[in-house]
Amino acid sequence: MPKILITDTILRDAHQSLIATRMRTEDMLPVCERLDKIGYWSLEVWGGATFDACVRFLKEDPWERLKQLKTALPNTPLQMLLRGQNLLGYRHYSDDVVRAFVACAANNGMDVFRIFDALNDIRNLRVSIEAVKKANKHAQGTICYTTSPVHTEKQFVSMAKELQAMDCDSIVIKDMAGLLTPEATANLVSALVAAVDIPVHLHSHATSGLASMCQYKAVENGITGIDTAISSFSGGTSHPPTESMVAALRNTKYDTELDLTQLQDIGFYFYEVRKKYHQFESEFTGLDTRVQVNQVPGGMISNLSNQLKEQNALNRMNEVLKEIPVVRKELGYPPLVTPTSQIVGTQAVMNVIAGERYKTITNEVKLYLQGKYGKAPGPVSIQVQHMAIGNEDVIDCRPADLLPNELDRLREEIGDKAKSEEDVLTYAMFPDIGKEFLIQRNADELVPEPLEPINSDNGGTPAATEFNVTLHGETYHIKLNGTGYKTQQQRPYYISVDGVPEEILLQPLDEINLNGDTGGTIPDGQRPRATRPGHVTTSMPASIIDVVVNLNDKVKAGDPVLITEAMKMETEIQAPISGTITAIHVAKGDTVTPDEALIEIE
To answer: Which DSSP string do the residues of 337-405 spell out, in sequence order?
Structure first.
């Protein structure tokens, strides 16, 4: 039996699962020399939500991160997670964009491409696999493991055979939510190893507390490699600790031959690093056996709790976790992995916060039900489908077959803001935040989100989040619950005043127009309340992506008037009544809250 190969997720999935993907490159580079000496089969460093987080929050160029890590880790293969036809975004891209992205990633230092499709629709993997092979890199085909009435071991084995036939170099079982049990692992691994001639790896999250046992059973049944995380970023919604699995296999025929002392030294380094990101820690990233029911994956729960906090709705997490499996069933039991985890999760949040199921339906749910993400694993709810898309046709071909080449159009759209092919692809992945990032970078105005100071005896103390305020002789207890998305003008803060939830909006004085000219829109916090049937509003705090109507336009009830974004998902806001647009109180980029009148129709 050859030694077991280790892929460490410390530079990608581990911090995505535990601190909402917020680790900065500056905290990775100092330890790279030590990581490079370990002898890992690979280090996962890119993909998943890292690209998004770099651009949206950290204000880092993700391509520069990749190049820096490649230079700092010359002896260790770098690995990324690629969403097949979705690449790193939340929609399908045309084939020319997929090929360009893979080629660019390979040229910048990527060695192993773990390629998956959220629906296990093999059609959505073909072009990515072909592009990786053309670049002479390692193509790892992925089976997204899940449980449902429509998923069987026989299906997973059949998929493995198809991936081998597509010339994949290896196969990985991606247990993104920690659903595997030791017995199920032994059966599935032995079946796959018997069915294919290429190596089989295992990626499993520790949410349910079973992952270490599952990995050992996988090793006993012929697995080639396992994914682990350095101990200080392991466990819970992350992965089994690297040091523990190395120790468990030491002096057996499966010995990894990795140096435990060196690994422990790296663990101490990241123990200190993690303290910097304490504001992104969540009570929902620990061991939770409910994952066996709600199936929420590690990366999703970390980001979900952070996003609910920004919505001032963290207290409703348990309601959301109960709603997720219901929505999943109605959508035909998709595996919960990006982007379907976001599609299902965001819709569940909206169902809970709105107080009425499917009162608001995201654009991504509509596209999913039209077949534009691929074939749903099981039958979808006819009622939900009708609510979302009416009598529109559902496609049955590979979704990308309907997409014309778009790379030239993207180059033209971004123009001279892009200084390289990498910049064009950044814009392609995330048009709005990508464009904003490039503009800020070119103007040397990139400012990462602030990190709250660490509370220590000899250092600074964090700003108070709970205090008393006395005004006109009355004392009020104020508690800061969270903050919303900052626009260029202001940031919303969610507070409790004597236990009553409130929202305040802070705006720098030098940005207030003292002459009262609002340029046709009313600033955040000054909009009228939605009190009439013709007032357009949202069901949850969001950002305005686009205003699709103009003053004096005639609209019918149900016509789109706004596009909003919340929790990375877009929603089409429709006219509540037929009539004429008499007032528009928002513009692209504004943040909005429920009960505000954003557009008036009479």
So the answer is: -TTHHHHHHHHHHHHHHHSSTTSS-BHHHHHHHTTBTB--SSPPPHHHHHHHHTT-----S-GGGGPPP
